[in-house]
Automatic annotation (TrEMBL):
<feature type="repeat" description="PPR">
    <location>
        <begin position="201"/>
        <end position="235"/>
    </location>
</feature>
<dbReference type="Pfam" id="PF17177">
    <property type="entry name" value="PPR_long"/>
</dbReference>
<dbReference type="GO" id="GO:0003729">
    <property type="term" value="F:mRNA binding"/>
</dbReference>
<dbReference type="InterPro" id="IPR002885">
    <property type="entry name" value="PPR_rpt"/>
</dbReference>
<keyword id="KW-0677">Repeat</keyword>
<dbReference type="InterPro" id="IPR044179">
    <property type="entry name" value="PPR5-like"/>
</dbReference>
<dbReference type="InterPro" id="IPR011990">
    <property type="entry name" value="TPR-like_helical_dom_sf"/>
</dbReference>
<feature type="domain" description="PROP1-like PPR">
    <location>
        <begin position="99"/>
        <end position="276"/>
    </location>
</feature>
<comment type="similarity">
    <text>Belongs to the PPR family. P subfamily.</text>
</comment>
<keyword id="KW-0809">Transit peptide</keyword>
<dbReference type="InterPro" id="IPR033443">
    <property type="entry name" value="PROP1-like_PPR_dom"/>
</dbReference>
<protein>
    <recommendedName>
        <fullName>PROP1-like PPR domain-containing protein</fullName>
    </recommendedName>
</protein>
């Protein structure tokens, strides 16, 4: 079972060529390492590297290490990294990149000790350091929460030519402090990045904005969002949700309307969760104009499930407000667009609205239209029976009871 699972993980996580390189000609290297005791990992790697022609370039270890991590074998992944380091030193490789790659894996495995050992080996070998290897080291220290060592590495970078901090360096600190929930540190590193002339990535803007909102630092969240927009960066779904949360907490006037205008102007895409939240806000406020604005925006995209939810939200709003003409327009619009009623409660509030207005003929038209695709349930029939009895509509009452009998409810 373990061997089969390991094979599936490997092939699912990489391309065919990479998988073939990682597993060998018979497709068993990962499975072998998963089943082997840890004391045999390095020996197995050496055997395969020496015996198979396609492994002689040494590149097969990277997808293999990643596959071992996915197979929940971090100790064996560490051993693969150690094997690669020993091989680089034995072959006297003086290119910094393969050492940097090992350290980047150390960030994933949270093995700061091995990362530092690799870095020290590079220094001892006299290999020319660069920004990439320092960034890998900084990321590893941040992954284990060693802020002092990460800061020391950063300060060391500033003093070495060819190793100056770049946008990746600042991004790493901002993202780490977002996870740690340190708002002041996020601001400090964000300002430092801007002063150094670097623009944060979309992922870092997401860390900034969602982090500030979690900490209730709403003015800082707004500042970061406005900076992002001014730079022409298109917000992610997580950023839009955080921005909506920020606006809701700040209780600004026309919150939804302004938000929707920006979404429309920027041609941003809303996910289902954000649409549902906007709909709830509109319903709670009783603002049908904003609901219609949201619906018009959704219709431009491909959010079919969201459009159906909005249709029904608008219908519920008009039904509860007893705006029968608007209600019928909303029903026709939904049905004409191919959307259907999702729950009996929506049908029942419509029926109640017709009864309150004593519009029995229009109720008949509505029922006739939905019967072709919607089977009424017991509670819906009970409402119809109660309404027809109340208004002494005996013919309709008898017909409804007969329909109930045929449906098995009597």
């Amino acid at each position: 079972m373990a061997i089969a699972a390991a094979r599936r993980l490997l092939w699912r996580g990489m391309g065919t060529a990479a998988a073939a390189a990682a597993t060998g000609t018979d497709g068993t290297l990962l499975a072998r390492l998963v089943s082997e005791p840890e004391c045999r990992v390095k020996a197995t790697m050496e055997e395969v590297a020496a015996s198979a022609a396609q492994h002689r370039d040494g590149g097969f270890w990277e997808p293999l290490a990643a596959a071992l991590l996915r197979a929940s074998s971090p100790n064996k992944a560490h051993l693969v990294l150690e094997w690669k380091l020993e091989k680089l030193l034995k072959e006297e490789i003086h290119d910094c990149e393969p050492y940097s790659t090992i350290i980047r894996f150390c960030a994933q495995t949270r093995n700061a000790a091995l990362a530092m050992r690799v870095f020290e080996c590079v220094e001892v070998q006299g290999i020319r350091l660069n920004t990439g290897i320092f960034n890998a080291l900084v990321n590893t220290f941040l992954s284990v929460g060693d802020l002092l060592s990460a800061m020391t590495s950063y300060e060391t970078m500033e003093g070495i030519e060819g190793c100056k901090p770049d946008s990746t360096t600042y991004d790493a600190f901002i993202s780490a402090f977002s996870v740690l929930g340190s708002g002041h540190a996020m601001i400090t590193w964000y300002i430092a990045a801007k002063n150094a002339g670097f623009t944060p990535s979309i992922q870092v803007f997401e860390s900034l904005i969602t982090g500030f909102v979690r900490l209730n630092m709403l003015d800082d969240a707004k500042m970061a969002f406005e900076d992002m927009i001014s730079l022409g960066v298109k917000p992610s779904s997580a950023i839009l949700e955080a921005n909506l949360e920020m606006l809701s907490r700040k209780k600004e006037v026309n919150t939804v309307r302004d938000f929707l205008k920006r979404v429309s102007d920027g041609d941003w895409e809303l996910n289902k969760a954000t649409v549902e939240r906007l709909m709830r806000v509109c319903l709670d406020k009783g603002d049908i104009d904003e609901m219609e604005q949201l619906f018009a925006l959704i219709q431009k995209g491909t959010h079919l499930s969201s459009a159906t939810q909005l249709h029904q939200g608008i219908i519920r709003f008009y039904a509860k407000a007893d705006r029968l003409a608007d209600l019928e327009d909303a029903i026709c619009r939904m049905l004409d667009n191919g959307a259907m009623f999702m729950c009996p409660e929506d049908v029942e509030v419509i029926i109640c609205s017709y009864f309150r207005h004593k519009e029995f003929d229009r109720l008949d038209l509505f029922l006739n239209r939905i019967r072709s695709f919607l089977k009424l349930n017991r509670s819906t029939y009970d409402i119809l029976v109660a309404g027809y009895r109340k208004f002494d509509l005996h013919e309709r009452l008898d017909s409804t009871i007969n329909d109930m009998r045929q449906a098995g409810f009597v």
